[in-house]
Amino acid sequence: MKVDIVDREQQQSTYAVNDVHELFSALSDEMKIDALCGGCCSCATCHVYLGDEYEHAMNEVAQDEQEILDGLMHTAENSRLLCQMTLQTEIEHLEITIAPAE
Amino acid sequence: MSSNVVDGADTDLNEVVANMLSPECIQNPYPVYKKLRTQSPVHGLLDYPPGTVPGVDTPFPAWVITRYADVDYVLSNPDIFSSEDPMQANSSAPSLMLVNHDKPRHTDLRNLAKMAFTPKRIHDNIVERLRSDVSAIVDGNVGQSIDFMEEVAGVIPALVMTYLMGLPKEDYKKLVRWANAFMVSSDFTPQERQSCNEELFHYFVAKVGERYSDIEAGKKVTDDLMTAFITAEYEGNGLSKEEVVLFCITLVVAGAETTTYFLGNLMGVMLEDSSWFERLKQDRSLIRPFMEECLRRDGPPQRLFRCVLKDCEVGGQAIKAGDWVAFFMAAANHDESVFENPEQFILGRKNVSKHVTFGRGIHHCLGAPLARIEAEIMLNTMFDKCAAVEGSLANSSRQSGGLLAYGFSTLPLKLVSTNP
Q: pTM value?
C-alpha cells in the first residue's frame, strides 16, 4: 500500500507499507510523530487527519480513541489516532495529514 | 539477586556508583553519567525512591541504567519492569496512584485522571487564570533582586495544583514544602521528612472529607479532579476513599517540584547566555524548541525505579527477576550515540522530541502538557513585562538532597522592567 503523508512542515512524502502499524513505526522513527506512549491510545501525539475517501477502509473509532480525540484542540471530522487505526479492507493507496502538535 | 563482576575497570565504576549520592554528583551528574554509559548497566546503587526517607528506610541495591537504548527498553516494557515499589510501600510515605501501579489497574486509574489533562481542559480551565496569576507574580517581582526559585518557580506549579483540586490558593506554600520533602530533594532531617509526609496525608484526608460532605449536602462543588475522583469512588469505579486521598497526593508530588525545577532550569539557561532573553523576546516561536532542548539537556527528573518481574537482558547484562533497576532518563538524554554534542544547548535539534524527560510508554507523564503550558506562560509573561534578566550562575546553587531532581535550590536574579 502506498501512503502519501503531509507532515507538520507541509512536506509531502510517500511510504510503501503493508499495514498502518508499519506506517506508525516508520513515522515514529523519523520523528514525524512523537509516539510517546508507544501506541497505547494515551498521548495523542500520533493525531492525524484521514483522507475522507479512506474512512470505509479503516476500523471505526472506539470509545477510548474518541475520548482522547475529544480532548484535543485541533480535532476535525476526519481525526484519528494513527496508533488505533487498522485496515479493514485491502487498499492500494492512502492519504494522511499529520495534525498540528497540541 | 545478581551481582556484578569486579575487575579493574568495574572497580572504578563501582566507586562511581558508590559516590552517586554525594552532593557533588547530585548537583552535576552528567560527567558521572558519561562514565557510566561506557558500561551500562552497573550494579550496586543504594538510593531512595520518592517518599522514602534516607536514614530511616533501607535501600535495595539497584542496577544503574544510563544508555538511551536501555532506558527506552525499560520504559517500553512494563510487563518486565514493574512500577510497584516495595520499598516505598514499606516506608512511612503514602503510596502513589498511577505512578506505582501496573496494568491492568494502571489503565483504569489513568482513564480516571487523564481527562483533566487534555489540551482542551487545560486551555478551558487553567490557561486564563494562570496567565492572570503569573502576570501578578511577575509584576510583584519585577525590578527587585529575588530568589527566582522561591518567588516564581516554586509558586506557579503549586498554584496550578490548587486549581486542579479546588484548594485554597494560599495553601500552595504548604504543597511546595511537602512536595520537596516527599521527593527526597532539599535538605530535610529524617524526622522533618516523615512529619511532612504525615502532614500531607492528613491535609488531603481533611480536604477530601470536606468535599465529600459538600457533595452529600447537595452543595455546588467545583468541577475539578478531586470531584472527579470522588465521583468515581461513589460510582463504584474501583477507587476507595483512601485512594481518592492518595490520588490527590500523587498529583502534588508529581507536578509541583518537577515543574518548579524545570522553570528554574529555563532561567538558568538564560543566565548562562544572556543573549537568549532578547532572542526569545523578539521571536516567541523559539520558545517551544527552547523549552524542549532545556527538557533534554537539563530535564529535572533524573531517574526512577522499577522492579524486575522476569529474567531479562539489558544492554547485554543478564538481570534477574526480583532485581531493582534505577533507570536514568537524564543520562539517556545525554547519550552521545543519540544526541550529538549532548552537553551543548542547541536550539532546533532535529531529534529533540526523542528526549525521555517525560518518559515513554504507559507511564509517560500525564502532566507534560501542563508543565509545558506553565513554562510557556511564565516565559511569555516575562518577555512581555521585562527587558532582561540579570544575574550570575556563580550565585546560584543546585539542590543536593537526592538524585531524583536536577534543579536550583536558589537562583538569585533580577527581572529588569521594560519601564524606564
A: 0.91
